[in-house]
Amino acid sequence: MPASSVCSENIAGCSLKMDEEKVDGVKEQLKGVADFAVGKSTGNKDRELRGKVEITNGSNKKDRTDWQNNVRKGADDPDNPSNK
């Protein structure tokens, strides 16, 4: 999803929305870590796999939000997470 479709009018609101999406990604990662740990300790392979998927999905959400922020800021290399 291009950054322009996420925020076309209000830059402050855009930043807030992206921050919320980043937080959602981190929450999903944490839920995945918990599911993975419970699945691993109980021998429940389905829950373990679900945890791995949640970790990956959360990471992707967070990375996408970072990329959108970098594009919005006009960074030379939007894929580099260290852009300020």
Task: Describe the protein in words.
The structure is a single chain. With 84 residues, the chain is mostly helical. It has one domain. The chain contains three helices and no strands. α2 packs antiparallel against α3. The longest helix is centred in the first third of the chain and has 32 residues.
How many β strands by DSSP?
0
H-E order: HHH
Mean pLDDT: 81
Helical percent range?
Answer: over 70%
DSSP strand content:
under 5%
The biggest beta sheet reads:
none
Using only CA atoms, what is the Rg?
A: 16 Å
List low-pLDDT spans. Answer: 1-6
* End-to-end C-alpha gap: 21 Å
- How many separate domains make up the residues? 1
Shape: elongated
Q: What's the number of helices?
A: 3
Judged by helices, strands and strand pairing, the structural class is: mainly alpha
